[in-house]
Design a protein that fits this description.
The structure is a homooctamer. Chain A contains six helices and five strands. Chain A is of the alpha/beta class. A five-stranded parallel β-sheet of chain A has the order 2-1-3-4-5, sandwiched between helices. The longest helix of chain A has 22 residues. Chain A is globular and about 55 Å long. The interface between A and B is large, with 38 and 38 residues.
Chain lengths: ~150, ~150, ~150, ~150, ~150, ~150, ~150, ~150
């Protein structure tokens, strides 16, 4: 393994991805991070922006979700490790969907969430090889699995 | 195909599974339905009941979720069609996880949810071959795909 | 093999499926045939009939094609042998799509078409283990592969 | 993902591939495009040119289609994204075959065709994550999925 | 699922398999149990008994292990659930090998062992969906996953 | 496993298949045997008989081999155990091809051949879980792996 | 595709591999060739040379064939295209075994053999996308599939 | 193959990995070696060190084993060849688990162990393409399979 591919799925309203990337850079780890588009309006509108307007929200959402899926499924399938963060806001069904998708593909799953979600996320956690709360823990895991001798 | 296997995932607080099964029986469709354990307390406690107590909720939940996974992953992998219902209450990350798991395995996915969840569930819907609101629509789909000539 | 599963894909405007089924019955072959819905209006309208109207033809067609896909992909994936007939009328991209889908899954492919289509169908034919013109030839192949000693 | 592999299948009688490649180059996208041989006579004759003459067109076509398949199936299986263009002329069963082949392999499918083909291509479209009309839209999708943050 | 297939791997010097089978029968569970040959001398000698003597123990053992593998790999690959028991005696590398084989195939793994082996078996346990000590617990799990509503 | 599927590949000029089937019947083993068409002229001519004459032997042979492949690949892929017999006559590349095909699919392979072929068949034997000389040994193996306790 | 991997299997008693490599180099094709060990005595003796002597030829051959399999199966599984040459001498079951192994993995298969073997090799040829006689034809195919526009 | 990936699993209490790496370097072989963390205390404690303390040894071990699995399963799945060494001490169920995991994935397996373990390891050995005693033999095999012509 020259480089480990890590897909960072889930919450897009805090800077947790940046913290992990900074940690990876600071440690000089052989890790390449990928992510969904985290520009929320762009992500919501990409379907109609590129493929034409829709009157119904259902089809606007479907067009957008499908364009995003071209990116997210490819990156997720290409990853060795998938990290999924559940934040405090929103329903985040997208994050849980990605967790299930990754689990079925045998990806190594790391789940991050506040302790208050422990019961609600128990099926998701049960598919993970690590459950943690902070980006720093993800960096520690990545250091351990990629360069520790 | 003598029999189609359909796994009914998701919400366990309404009688939607029974409505679908009644519809299948009334139509005499060649469909065998399976489901997770829908007795909520039993589902929460199966891990510690069988494998011994835990002081921490995290491990109680893990033990239970893993025992449930023996059942749910086997039935889901054995299914031709997976129906997932999102209700109005609870976070239902489990339902979204099952949707992702089913999608990655190439299962034919039917998603049921109230229209108010359209935007929040757009990634899940985008993986589905049908999105509907009522159990009767699922029965109609099953009739069409299994016996219509 | 107690029973061979054969999926009959393609043209829905002649009675070729019935000829094959009659031949199988007359010979008493251990073959179970499946097919898409061959009621053309039902096939076109199943999406909006079950899941609600659409103003745009594009979405009406998508809804219908996706409901049909629940059936056709399941039956095709379940088949040992896939027979695809290209008729003289229509563009029949659906038939060519099914041929590619079946080829990628390693299904044993039998293609039926009039000789005039030989050049236009050369990539499809090249993925087939038999290319023929008449339903009777399909029956002969099925007899040979299932019961000849 | 250092580079995304995109296979450009379908119509060979317009310069749509060149437009997409120009767009990729202009945007500096990390995308590598591949394609079938687009020299029509070479594609038709490669079998007999290399492997020896045939009297019957059927075998000439088969030899050629099989040599082309060495290339096209390898490139298609190696692709992350498969773009298929249906033009206005010819029957283009080859394009529909490639669409089905790509769909069965779980490739991310983008379909381009004039709106007049919407109904005839509904099963092909239903397997796609994006349906569009112009090469520029493909470039926009590629930009969005490969470099947007 | 009409019947769940459960492969009982590991220790062959106690009657744990019989206890599980008795429990399944007493509860009337839809479970079919399979197992390796538990006649120790037959298992050691099957290779040379059927395929001819060997002077070197290494080849005698190889012949026997390969004949046993015809049975054990087939049954394990056919199982929905794999139960592996580690006893107190012998090195039981065979049991650990089966656990790894089952884990890589995505089988639902239940591990039984005395608590004293917890540390030594931690990698094996980490691949399991349930870890227990007694045959009765396996029966309880099987009852829960196969017939509980 | 209610029934084990065993495909009997290779030599078609002696009655070894019948000996194995008789042994299975005499022992009452839960084994279902399948085989290629063993009527040599029918096997050679099935392609042109059903699909039309060819002037060149190459295409006559291809048509026939492809029709036979519909049968043999299906049965081989459906088998739990594949037995391949190499006789004393003919080149039997077909038998070696089937051995490689079965090995790549992870089938449990039993090879039968006279000892004089040991060196020439070493790569084939190296993929097998048992190498023997007589049909009776195959029956003994089948008895051991299917019903011994 | 930056580089196409081509595995050259089969006959080791003529310089056909060198002719193909020379052709590739002369044309500057983006092709990387691999091959089994073609030093016949080394190939026969590698097992006992490295892992210790055997009295019986059967085990000497098995040890050697298994060591060679570490190389050949890895390279064959890594290849995009597999070329197999059948020469005039020896039984070459190894070449036919590799052909079957490659076919089951969906590799693009090119078979080379003298015309006199057409009937005996018909099942092998039927799995190939090209059948030819001369190394120069393989180079022409490789040029066509890798660099022709 | 530019580089062969070799995963060195098993015993962590002698310097056998270093001997193999030295041999590879001395011979200049195109081989990249990977391994689990061989710092025993770090390996035992990584779970609780990164993810928080546990009172019960069972959960401490599970947390650690799961973090290690992120590394070991990824490297093992990425390997072409898996070498597993069984030493004289400890139960080494981990080594046997890895052997089974590798075997199920079709990895090329080389097993090293003292001759005294021949009988106890017979099922593990039976899944291997080479069984040896010394690191030097592994280097010889790697030289033969990667660079011998």
């Amino acid at each position: 393994m020259n480089t480990w591919n890590v897909y960072l799925s889930g919450e897009i309203h805090s800077d947790w991805r940046k913290e992990i990337k900074n940690g990876i850079e600071a440690e000089g780890l052989p890790v390449n991070c990928t992510a969904p588009v985290t520009d929320h309006p762009a992500s919501d509108n990409c379907g109609v922006d590129i493929l034409g307007d829709e009157e119904k929200d259902f089809w606007k959402d479907r067009k957008g979700a499908q364009v995003n899926a071209i990116r997210t499924r490819t990156l997720l399938e290409d990853a060795d490790i998938v990290v999924v963060k559940f934040g405090e806001k929103y329903r985040q069904w997208n994050a849980a969907f990605d967790s299930g998708y990754a689990a079925a593909l045998g990806k190594k799953l790391i789940i991050m969430h506040p302790e208050e979600h422990t019961h609600a996320l128990k099926e998701v956690d049960a598919a993970a090889l690590a459950v943690c709360q902070e980006p720093g823990q993800v960096v520690e895991i990545l250091r351990y699995v990629t360069v520790k001798e």
